[in-house]
Automatic annotation (TrEMBL):
<comment type="similarity">
    <text>Belongs to the 4-toluene sulfonate uptake permease (TSUP) (TC 2.A.102) family.</text>
</comment>
<feature type="transmembrane region" description="Helical">
    <location>
        <begin position="85"/>
        <end position="104"/>
    </location>
</feature>
<dbReference type="InterPro" id="IPR002781">
    <property type="entry name" value="TM_pro_TauE-like"/>
</dbReference>
<dbReference type="InterPro" id="IPR051598">
    <property type="entry name" value="TSUP/Inactive_protease-like"/>
</dbReference>
<feature type="transmembrane region" description="Helical">
    <location>
        <begin position="12"/>
        <end position="39"/>
    </location>
</feature>
<dbReference type="Pfam" id="PF01925">
    <property type="entry name" value="TauE"/>
</dbReference>
<feature type="transmembrane region" description="Helical">
    <location>
        <begin position="116"/>
        <end position="137"/>
    </location>
</feature>
<protein>
    <recommendedName>
        <fullName>Probable membrane transporter protein</fullName>
    </recommendedName>
</protein>
<keyword id="KW-1133">Transmembrane helix</keyword>
<keyword id="KW-0812">Transmembrane</keyword>
<keyword id="KW-0472">Membrane</keyword>
<keyword id="KW-1003">Cell membrane</keyword>
<dbReference type="GO" id="GO:0005886">
    <property type="term" value="C:plasma membrane"/>
</dbReference>
<feature type="transmembrane region" description="Helical">
    <location>
        <begin position="212"/>
        <end position="231"/>
    </location>
</feature>
<feature type="transmembrane region" description="Helical">
    <location>
        <begin position="237"/>
        <end position="258"/>
    </location>
</feature>
Amino acid sequence: MYIYLPIAEVSVNAFVLLGLGGLVGILSGMFGVGGGFLMTPLLFFIGIPPAVAVATEANQIVASSFSGVLAHVKRKTVDFKMGGVLLIGGLVGAALGVVVFNYLKSLGQVDLLVKLCYVLFLGVVGSLMFAESLRALRKSKQVAVSKPRKKRGLVHSLPFKMRFRVSGLYISIIPPIVVGVAVGVLAAIMGVGGGFVMVPAMIYLLGMPTKVVVGTSLFQIIFVTAFTTMLHATTNYTVDMVLAVLLLIGGVIGAQFGTMIGAKLKAEQLRILLALMVLLVCGKLALDLIVEPAELFSLGVAGGH
């Protein structure tokens, strides 16, 4: 059953979109990521112009993340105080990101920028996460990984300290705000929740326990992506509501299943799976940029004029 997307100006199979939404919803519930890092490139692959994919995917992440957060709130694995601090930075970053996005759109360079950003970020983050997860798996066989790491002096030496009881931390609010800003910029330019950057940063930089990282990440993602969607809709007019609704339905259902699967796997196993997923998408995107598929690029040009 093909359906016409008015803003994207293409016809796509509705069941394919529902399936993609469900797949990303499962990832959202399992890993605490909005899933945009995977969904946005998948939308490129089925012929959605990058500018529309970025703006619309931010909208879909709101729903799948909200669905995932509800499950974590029941388990009391959300640090609302830390989420609030991350959110302050996230809103600032999102506003900055939309300004950059609009400027590049006016130059006609936004499609290429989005794809290059994906290859760069997914490659770096995926490699780092995979290496760190392998180390954590080796350590877990000898010593409990939940022990605090020794090298975390910088986070503890900065001013403006705050106590985060749920996470069991007493650290400066500067690093969480910086992480939030970075994630906000990514949300605006790449149409992602930023979980693939935020989750590793919360574990390795802020020293948060893995069990509260997923729920807290999803909590912050909801508000940053909602704000990003609103900015894109009012300044770019690139949010395709038909596309968003189909992805949203699949995402909400998938997130509930993902949370159940995630609860049965060890933290180290989850991190390795996420790292592999990130590297896989990065490889496919890089290949597409090198091969230069004529159809995708002609669609991007048509959407831009």
